[in-house]
Amino acid sequence: MRKRRPIELFSISFLDLLSGALGAVIILYVAIPKTKEVVPKISEENIEVVREELIKTQEELGKTKEMLSKVTEKLAQNPDPGSLKGKDVDVGFKFKGKEILFIIDTSYSMIEEDRMGQVKAGLKMLITSLGPDFRVEVIRYPLAERAPFKTLWGIPMENTLINQMDIFEFIYSMKPSGGTPTRDVMLFALENYQNISDIVLLSDGAPTYHNSNKKDDIYDILEVIRKENTRKVQINCIGVGSEFTKDKTSDRYKFLSLLAQEHEGFFVGF
Q: Most exposed of 53, 102, 128, 149 (fewest Cβ within 10 Å)?
């Protein structure tokens, strides 16, 4: 059995967290194993390991707070979240159903502004806030030069605590590299995940071809996805990076906003 990395679970209400009217509430539970045995003396080496883990945790919390601040400000501009189509769930976003496919852009440009770190922190919280009645799957794209994408399981799985550990380990392993082959991963998702209700695409840039900086045709991609999405999967988009708030005429902004609009999903840029 493979060794799992320690997992930090956030126990939160995501709706309260993202609502500008109610404010942001973050509750962190730190579970410390308890024993009746005498605690052995901690070595200098172990102290250093604990110190490093504490620094990492503090850095991740800082990234999470920064991301929440941006998302809260963005959502506050839409005073009527009920105008978004879909069923009410226990999170601030509106999903069509309870079988969610998360597609994560891990292209090289995600290294800028620590976009990858923000996505990791935000996705961890979102996954944790979903109940066990949800089924989830995660795809990263690209897998460096080796492939245009990589799936976690290949099928959606119940959002149990055990499966969340696999998700967080998969997220932890993501490193920015390569281009942004959005066409490849979106067509793969629509063809191979027959029962999903929603796709959540998190990306920071306009699509390119795999292993290339050459831009793909965003309007051709939109047309192809319209034809392939015969099951009316709700496609939701989250644009990562300051350019989404600075330039609404850019290809990256047009692509993600139109993709969400054409498939009745939500779009947030931060």
A: 53
